[in-house]
Amino acid sequence: MIKAAHVQELIADKLLEKDCFVVELEIATGNKISLEIDSLNGFTIQDCVDFSKAVDNSLDREIEDYELHVSSPGINKPFRVNQQYLKNIGREVKVTLKEGGKVEGELKAVEEEGIIVEYSYKERIEGRKKKQVIVKEEKIKFDNIKETTLIISFNK
Q1: What is the chain's mean pLDDT, rounded?
Q2: CA angle, 98 as apex, 134 and 78 as ends, to 5°?
Q3: By three-state DSSP, how is residue 133 classified?
C-alpha cells in the first residue's frame, strides 16, 4: 500500500516551487490517492496537471497499481487548514460554532488562536426614530469553530 508520507515526499519540491500547500491527502483502499492542494494565489488546472505528473513520474504502476485524483479544495467545502483562512481574509464567511450558533461576516484577520470576523446589524437606539447600523468585530477561537465556509455571492 502506498503511504501518505511517501506521496508527501514526492510533491514536496513542487509545493515549494509553486508556493502551494496541501489541504488534504487521503489514500483509501485500493491505493485511491486523493490530493487537494491550494495556494494563496489560486490553484489552476495546469497546477493540477503538474502535481499529477510529479506523482505519476515517481510511482511505478507495475509495482503497485493506484488511482490518482488531484484537485483544488473547491469553494463550497469547509476550511480545513490555517492557510485557507489566510487566503480568504477580506471575504465573507460563515462560521458555525461548536457551542451552537453561527457568525456571518467579513474575515478580517487570522491570529494564532483564532480569527476575527466583522459583521453588522441594525438596532434601535433610544431617542432615535430609525434603527442604526452597528458594526461589531468578534474574535472566535479555533477551538470553538465547528466549520467555516465561504459565502458565495454574485451581487458584488
Answers
A1: 93
A2: 85
A3: strand
Name residue 22's beta-bridge partners. 37
The one-character DSSP state at 84 is H
Q: What percent of the residues of the chain are helix, what percent strand, and what percent coil, each to the nearest 5? A: 25, 40, 35
CB atoms under 10 Å from CB of 66, counted, come to 18
Domains of the chain: 4-71 (3.30.300), 82-150 (2.30.30.100)
Q: What is the value of pTM for the model shown?
A: 0.86
Q: Is the pLDDT of residue 88 over 80?
A: yes
Q: Between helices 45-56 and 4-18, what is the axis angle to 10°?
A: 140
Sign of CA pseudo-dihedral 76, 11, 58, 3? negative
Average pLDDT over residues 15-28: 96
DSSP code, position 144: G
Q: Which of 21, 23, 27, 24 is nearest to 3 (CA)?
A: 27
Cα 107 versus chain centre, distance: 13
